[in-house]
Amino acid sequence: MAELSAAKSASTYESSTLRRDAWIANLPFIIVLSAFGIYTTWRAFEGAYYYVDPYLSPFYSPLIDPKHHWWPFSPAILILGGPLGFRLTCYYYRKAYYRAFFGDPFGCALKEGHKGYKGETSFPFILQNIHRYFFYIAVIFVAFLWYDALVAFDFDGKFGIGVGSVVMLANIVLLTIYTFSCHSLRSLVGGKLDCFSCAALGGPRHAAWKGVTKLNEHHMFWAWVSMISVGLTDLYIYMVASGAIKDIRIL
Ligand code: FES
């Protein structure tokens, strides 16, 4: 009888949860990420309305072969793998989309969405470990986007400020914070050390680690706001380039 009751409570435990909070917090993530995925796919393949002097959409930067000398498709396709790979392998996004889309599991203390959990120990998810290398690539993209943001203040060789300049500047600031709050960077600068004072360049590494840790504490927040800002920046440039709205000059 006791065995029966133990088996029953075990199976109850497997199929339900004692959690009483709103653990379905994945819903906003599903909605926003799906919308972002659909929008970026459309814009990346569109190959139009990505530049209006002096603004270049972040989805198309760095701009390669815009006149189609050797690449017949949208220039965004050539470069999208860098930022996309960085986000897809990001520790935060991994947690979020494993939960939201794979139910793996839906949340802490909840049942696995399917049998045969292998985590990231086998193909294809073992490839997530290349995130560190995507970080290096992301830093190169950040440099290009800073250049674009500075060019966005150059109106026919004269300094000026348009709404687009401000939008592009805000976007690259958010993207920079997101990039430099990366867990891989934190590990790289010192997270893996047990003793800073025993390591080469221990002092500067400790200072860098403390700085990255401050940003890293809010990595999820930066992941969200930078993703939304990059989408809105492209949308703004699309609307100005297509003539739907006019860019307002502030200065
Ligand atoms: Fe999120 Fe590196 S962990 S960007």
Give your account of this protein's structure.
- The protein has 251 residues and is mainly alpha-helical.
- Helix content is 58%, strand content 3%.
- The strands form 2 sheets. It has a two-stranded antiparallel sheet with strand order 1-2.
- FE2/S2 (inorganic) cluster (FES) binds next to helix 5, helix 6 and helix 8.
- The site of FE2/S2 (inorganic) cluster (FES) has 9 residues, from helix 5, helix 6 and helix 8.
Brief write-up:
58% of the residues lie in helices and 3% in strands.
Provide tags for this entry.
251 residues; two-stranded antiparallel sheet; two-stranded antiparallel ribbon; binds FE2/S2 (inorganic) cluster
Give the topology, please.
Blueprint: H1 2-15, H2 26-46, E1 51-52, E2 55-56, H3 76-79, H4 81-88, H5 91-102, H6 131-151, E3 154-155, E4 158-159, H7 163-180, H8 183-191, H9 202-216, H10 219-241
Antiparallel strand pairs: 1-2, 3-4
The protein binds FE2/S2 (inorganic) cluster.
FE2/S2 (inorganic) cluster (FES) binds at residues 90-92, 131, 135, 182-184, 219.
Give the biggest sheet. 2 strands, antiparallel
In the sheet with the most strands, the strands line up as 1-2
Q: What is the string of SSEs from the N terminus onward?
A: HHEEHHHHEEHHHH
Bound ions, cofactors and other small molecules, one mention each: FE2/S2 (inorganic) cluster
Helical fraction: 55-70%
Distance between the termini: 82 Å
The whole-angstrom Rg is: 22 Å
* Arithmetic mean of pLDDT: 90
Instruction: Give the tally of β-strands.
Output: 4
